[in-house]
Fold each of these.
Amino acid sequence: MRLLRLQRRLSQDVLADEAGVTQALVSAIERGLANPTVESLERLALVFGVGVVDLFQNPEIKD
């Protein structure tokens, strides 16, 4: 998810705000310390414009 966020040039704060979750949750997910709900994953995927499954893949960062 961190790679998707960086690829789209979003801060954790902006991503969290747009997804309706906390910045702490975004940070914890990126560090592998959280077990997000399906609802949280759906909200995050919606912001990215991808499917939930895409949050579990490693996209390449393109400049």
Note: The helical segments are 2-7, 12-19, 23-30, 38-48.
Amino acid sequence: MIKRILSVISAAALLSSPAAVFAETNNDISILVNGTKIETDTAPVIINGRTMVPVRAIAENLGCDVIWDETDQGIIVCRDFHLYTFWIGYDTSFDIYDNAVVLENTYSLESAPIIINDRTMLPVRAVAEMMNAEVGWDDATRTVSINVEQSEPYDYSAFTDSITTYESALYSERDKYKALALGSADTVTGCIVLETGETMDFVLYPEFAEQTVNNFISLAKSGFYNNTIFHRVIEDFVIQGGGFFKSGDDIITKEADTIRGEFLANGYINFLPHTAGALSMARTNDPDSASSQFFICDGACPSLNGQYAVFGYVLDSGELIHELASAETDENDMPLNSVAIKEIIIN
């Protein structure tokens, strides 16, 4: 879900602004963080009714590090291993987390990051709310007060190259992820029908894992998955299917081609997380060995993020997924009483 922030988050170093900005300088505005006044070398300004200050002044007082990518005019505010990414003139920012391999949150900004007087400016309330801070305004004293739980400062300088690599990757795909957050990304819908009559509706995202989605659709439409079972189930982890008939016969090696592994560790830009209900491709140690076997997450599986290709999500079937994942199994995690997939329907 996209998050609405009151204004822009920005950050960075010294630059020249390419465009004129209408701003009102306010030397009488004070900024307090946990009761301590912030001193800045540039006075706060009001833009679109928002109080804005230089990024480093506010970020560093909130225990953040700031990295600037001049190539993309990209800004990364690092805090508690969250990377908040922004770009000058762009109205959407992203929070990538878990070693920078998944998209945690998307934020819609009322004003894009901007540079004034050789300083990159950000609205105080916006950045504070992203850090889960409480923000107040005292009109009588013209004071912004921020109360936030301080985190231990961490030096991210050793990771600057890798951090900017993730930022640049997201930059190249940012409009797709913006559309995803707004609910306007291209999708394909369908349904897994079990032999019991129960169903699991799903949505696929071809823009983020095109070859994987096309492979899954082709196999489903061909009837490949008909009468196959969830042959590996682990409670609070995954249910895996697409490889065996109920008789135990393996259908994979002879009948399904392998596809490219569309995940970050394999050099492919896919920040989709393994949250509950995620549809993802199983594989061997070879990153390009996925074929027809897929799995569905029974709860969040962060250990899989960036290592396997998420290509869609099962909707509103958490109880059914957990029921299947909780089945009694043998030593190979195969259910003693397996449930077959009658068919997979693509709408």
Note: Residues 1-22 have pLDDT under 50 and may be disordered.
Amino acid sequence: MLTDSTRAADFPGLKGIHYLNTAAESIPPVCVNEAVAEYMRHKSLGMRGRDFHFPRVEECREITAKMLGLSTNEVSFCSCSSEAYNLLANALDLKPQDEVVVTDLDFPAGATPWLAAPEHSRPVTRLWQNSNGALNLVDLASLLNERVRLVQVSLVSFYNGHRVAYAKLRDMVRLLAPNALIAVDVTQALGRVVLDCQDADILISSTHKWTLGIHAGGIVGIPEKSAARLTTKAGGWCHIVNAFDADRFETARIKPGAPSFSVGMPSFAALYALNASLRYLDQVGVASIAAHADPLVAHVHAGLKELGIATLCAAQPDHPCGIVAFKHERSDAINAALLARNIHVMHHAGRIRAAIHGYNTAEDVEKLLATLRAAL
């Protein structure tokens, strides 16, 4: 992943392209393709395939727990981050007098469950707005009080790559909103940056971005200290202790904490893939990935500055991540020029976002900047 030889062997799909869009979709390594093929071989065994399916889930739980800095009983899986957030809303069972703080740099999955609640039970939603692309703690302080039940943030923003100063945020929330739980979306961080938010009350991630997995997976991490407060009340079977007991039609006894978020049959294909991808990333080392990719991100920031392009979030040497984004009135022409040279970024509503992972190279960055220079 970090050398020409391993990149060529592990990511043949990158041949001939400069892929800078991992924040949307990753390019999985060969081992993920092999894991999905293994799932299909096991699936072809019919019911006997479950003898392989469930052990793979437990293997995936072990490596996911390691990557999150949690224990295995503090980690579970669902179908996607959106499902995880809706189950979180179910667990909290908020009332109109309760308050939730979200940010304007969050992905909709983490911000909309509170807005979509029935009017008679909808909590008050407070918006922590960014200032020049950054979330400043001084602006958060005025939103915190004893009525706040949840503070929802993304460790790294999908929109512009801003990375919150988690430790300072945590301390402020614990002091000024003592009844609040902290939820952190690590979708744009897990597998790319060394996490510093393991003591959040709940961690949520998708599986098809920096983790190098595939769709239909969602990761949930809930430390034991928060399990009692974060147990879903949803129906299902996989998360119910007495799902097939004699009293199953009289009461539903739900596993506490993270296991309560696995309400149905595991998404086996996604978890086979995630088991392989996280073990691959763990072998390479997230710290090594960051050491390789962070200077490339800094080079993009510097190159854009030379071109007179203001990024949507200033460079953060103390809180690095993999995303650089900017807006430009000629974004359509810029994106066309990039695609003509097999440079893949995200382009939406005038915004261009480059995402740099461990499989990216200095050549990718130079091609990006040279093409921007020519296009402008």
Note: The chain has two domains: 4-23+285-375, 33-282.
